[in-house]
Amino acid sequence: MPKLKKQASDSPNGSPWYVVKESSIHGRGLFARKAIPSGTRVGTMTGRPTQRDGRHVLWVYEDDGSCAGLRVQNDLRFANHSQRPNTELDGFDLFALRRIRKGEEITFHYGDDWEQVE
User: Fold this and answer.
1) Which residues contact residue 11 at a Cβ distance below 8 angstroms, ignoring those fewer than 6 apart?
2) 23-37 burial, b for 16+ CB within 10 Å, e for fewer?
3) Counted domains in the chain
4) Residue 100 class from Cβ within 10 Å (0-12 exposed, 13-18 middle, 19+ buried)?
5) How far is Cα 92 from Cα 2, in angstroms, rounded to an integer?
6) Neighbouring-strand partners of residue 115
7) What pLDDT, in 10s, does the model give residues 77-86?
8) The domain containing residue 69 runs over which residues?
9) Intra-chain end-to-end CA distance of the chain, in Å
10) What is d(CA 110, CA 106) in angstroms, rounded to the nearest whole number?
11) Which of 87, 77, 74 lies closest to 10, judged by CA?
């Protein structure tokens, strides 16, 4: 299992790229503060390592078959799932797949095996 370090959470609305607001997809979501160019690193998921599933837990699977669980504690935990996402994860970093318009909700695909945890 890859080693994870606890990192400081983003302060609320502290990102130059996004703000947390109510979402029509589910609860709260991330919305672009301004246009985000394709390929931009929108942010990095930060939090505490975990081996238990639950709400706001992100599982990253490595090429060597290892898996790392992170209980996301910064604002990126509010990025909602979409079958047609505008961002994707590379490890714990979230990158824009295309230009994201100002005010557009920032989404990513949680994975084919994702099931909503209440």
Assistant:
1) none
2) beeeeebbbbeeebe
3) 1
4) buried
5) 12
6) none
7) 899 999 999 9
8) 18-108
9) 26
10) 13
11) 74
